[in-house]
Amino acid sequence: MMESNLETKKLSPNAAPVLEQREFIWIKDYLYKNAGIVLNDNKHALVSGRLDKRLRHYGFSTYTEYFRLLGKAGYEQETLMAIDLLTTNETYFFREPKHFDFLKSQVIPEHPAGSPMRIWSAASSSGEEAYTLAMMVAEYAKTSQWEIVGTDISTRILEKAKQGLYPLNASEKIPLTLLKKYCLRGQGEYEGFLLIDSVLRNRVKFMYANLIDKLPDLGSFDVIFLRNVMIYFDMPTKQHLVERIQHYLRPGGYFIISHSESLNGIKSQFQMISPSIYQKRGS
């Protein structure tokens, strides 16, 4: 909750709300405590721009008034929406393709034939990563028993992921053979869009999860993708996150992060196979 010593400053009805420095510091602290995200000092304009419509929705003239709603009983959905709006959701199909080459050449072939396979896209955003994983497993796995689980902190973006509907230009990095096999071209009102075929959508389960809060009962996985997430966290939060994530990975399973990230300085059960690709010790 907003500290009581933050006074509400009324502005004229037509004036654009101004995010004051003390308010920016408050929301930075709130986002860190509740989502683990470190908001850089240069994100002042981003915060004001993304939350401006929410202030106008309630008729508030200051950010202080709006911040008093966050965490308040009865405003749970508004709190989630605020976190959604301040969370960057950028992804695309076959992003960082070497990871999918590794799946195709090593992970999938070494998986026992007929044995169930589960992969977790731990920050699935709008679903492109999860559906890319689904394409790879459907195409190359030696088992018909497989599942992809996608989780994200943004309920808004998860609804988009569940639809599996994307602009046609999102298909640029999907190999043509997979595009033809697993994607449908929209017609009529869906002209200019592609829809992920139900043969894949039925294998991908999306659910809400705050990675630094209590996680749902997810079961165990053979592979966990956690890419382009830890860049937003400080070292203590990274350590805490990795300790929790490794619990969900089977011994010998693979933990894959972004090429721009590493586990340097983080204690874990993982050993590096190659940059950004780790394997859980054990058998």
Per CATH, the class of the largest domain reads Alpha Beta
By DSSP (H or I, 4+ residues per run), the number of helices equals 10
- Kindly state the mean pLDDT as a whole number? 90
Question: Got a strand count?
Answer: 10
> What general form does the structure show?
globular
Described by strand count, sense and barrel closure, the largest sheet is: 7 strands, mixed
Fourth-tier CATH superfamily name of the largest domain = Vaccinia Virus protein VP39
Strand content: 15-25%
The H/E string reads HHHHHEHEHEHEEHEEHEEE
Q: Strand order across the biggest sheet?
A: 6-2-1-7-8-10-9
Query: In total, how many domains does the architecture comprise?
Result: 2
Work out the radius of gyration: 21 Å
3D architecture notes:
By secondary structure, the chain is an alpha/beta fold. 36% of the residues lie in helices and 17% in strands. The strands form two sheets. It has a seven-stranded mixed sheet, with helices on one face. Helix 6 (128-140) links the parallel strand 1 and strand 2. The chain starts with 20 loop residues before the first helix and ends with a strand. Residues 1-12 have low confidence and may be disordered.
Any chance you could write out the topology, listing elements then pairs?
Layout: H1 21-35, H2 44-58, H3 63-67, H4 76-85, H5 98-110, E1 117-121, H6 128-140, E2 146-152, H7 155-163, E3 165-167, H8 176-182, E4 183-185, E5 193-196, H9 198-201, E6 204-208, E7 221-225, H10 235-245, E8 249-256, E9 270-274, E10 277-280
Parallel strand pairs: 1-2, 1-7, 2-6, 7-8
Antiparallel strand pairs: 3-5, 4-5, 8-10, 9-10
Helix pairs in contact: 5-6
